[in-house]
Inverse folding.
């Protein structure tokens, strides 16, 4: 009897466990291995180094490659870099000014970068995320230029560690996700294309005005020269 009761109890416990498992909320995308922030960091650093003609020989192998979200990060991080290049360059110089690059030093430099005054240090908005990855991309390029390639993996690790902690602390509360990040990235890229088109239109407009001005001046000069020579 005791053995029978024990078997029944075990069966009952098993059914409860199954129900509890079914009731669990599904993982958010940033909690899945597929979308670990390290993948975004490594992919962008690789891409940014290649733009400057460098190979990352020690690059860690990623379980997932060529995710559409990686492409979104590449696009918006490069847009951010081009808009804020001077500020980013100053930060890179500050970070690499020390002989030894430690995680503590990395945190000191980037702790408040891209963070609004009303945000806590643990907050990680999409804008701050992009800013920090763009910054890291310039850091590794500077290291490659100085033939300090052994430090590139360290910067990738520091960046991933810094971002991962803050994503896990804040994204669930702020209702953020990689899917929503990709949507925001599309908006940014669309606005950037509109801005570039507007600049091209202005450039063509001023080119035509310049040509017209040169034409008027040229005609006037020719008329004046002919009048002088006819005297």
């Amino acid at each position: 009897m005791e053995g029978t009761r024990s078997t029944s109890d075990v069966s009952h416990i098993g059914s409860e466990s199954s129900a509890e498992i079914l009731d669990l909320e599904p993982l958010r995308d940033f909690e899945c291995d597929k979308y670990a922030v390290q993948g975004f960091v490594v992919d962008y650093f690789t891409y940014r180094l290649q733009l400057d003609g460098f190979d990352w020989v020690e690059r860690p192998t990623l379980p997932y490659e060529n995710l559409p979200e990686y492409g979104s990060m590449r696009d918006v991080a490069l847009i951010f870099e081009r808009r804020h290049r001077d500020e980013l360059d100053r930060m890179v110089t500050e970070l690499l000014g020390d002989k030894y690059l430690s995680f503590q030093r990395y945190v000191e430099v980037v702790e408040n970068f891209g963070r609004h005054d009303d945000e806590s240090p643990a907050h990680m908005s999409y804008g701050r995320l992009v800013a920090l990855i763009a910054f890291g991309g310039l850091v590794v390029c500077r290291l490659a230029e100085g033939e300090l390639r052994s430090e590139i993996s360290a910067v990738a690790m520091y960046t991933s560690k810094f971002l991962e902690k803050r994503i896990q602390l804040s994204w669930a509360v702020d209702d953020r996700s990689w899917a929503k990040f990709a949507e925001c990235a599309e908006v940014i890229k669309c606005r950037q294309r509109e801005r570039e088109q507007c600049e091209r239109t202005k450039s063509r407009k001023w080119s035509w005005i310049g040509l017209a001005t040169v034409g008027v001046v040229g005609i006037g000069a020719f008329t004046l020269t002919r009048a002088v020579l006819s005297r």
About this structure: The CA atoms of residues 171 and 177 lie 7 Å apart. The chain has a mean pLDDT of 83.
